From TrEMBL:
InterPro entries xref list: Phage_head_completion_GpL
UniProt-recorded name of the protein: Bacteriophage head completion protein gpl
Pfam families: Phage_GPL
Top-level lineage group: Bacteria
Phylogenetic classification of the source organism: Bacteria, Pseudomonadati, Thermodesulfobacteriota, Desulfobacteria, Desulfobacterales
């Protein structure tokens, strides 16, 4: 038995609460689905998810306002075509959770390098920005999918 609060110990159902319109996110599902190392503490995972929520909520403020004006109290109430539903899973909720989790993982990648020993940390630090950028792009792509817009990625040569 371990007395540390490592993410390995997270029980299913440990929810990170959002506001009423946006969905809460299960911390253990985030860790499992995004293959996060067990060295991350629960508090760090929850903090990065909250930062991801703040980022996504700000990016989607206009989206939320339009649907709130239409009388929708939550993202799950936004209508979609029946063919878009995946069983009982709402596609916009899935995309929102994807955006938040990808953004949170991007934030976590830079944290992980500092948790390792010096040589490993130096190696990871060299790779972390590119990898973190990939997850940030995924997050932006999920937001674009939710809003029916395109994303364009430009890199300097």
């Amino acid at each position: 038995m371990s007395f540390t609060a490592f993410a390995d110990d997270l029980p299913k159902g440990t929810m990170v609460e959002n506001n009423a319109f946006w969905p809460d996110i299960d911390l253990a599902e985030f860790q499992e689905a995004y293959r996060l190392p067990g060295e991350y503490r629960e508090a760090l995972l929850a903090d990065r998810l909250r930062l991801g929520m703040l980022w996504a909520n700000k990016e989607l403020a206009g989206f939320r306002a339009r649907h709130a004006e239409a009388g929708r109290a939550s993202l799950a109430e936004v209508p979609v075509d029946d063919g878009e539903m995946l069983g009982d899973l709402h596609p916009l909720v899935l995309q929102y959770v994807r955006a938040v989790c990808c953004h949170a993982k991007g934030l976590l990648l830079s944290d992980y390098a500092t948790m390792l020993r010096k040589n490993d940390a130096q190696s990871d630090a060299k790779e972390a920005p590119e990898t973190a950028d990939r997850w940030f792009r995924e997050a932006l792509s999920a937001l674009a999918d939710m809003q029916g817009t395109m994303t364009i990625h430009v890199e300097a040569l």
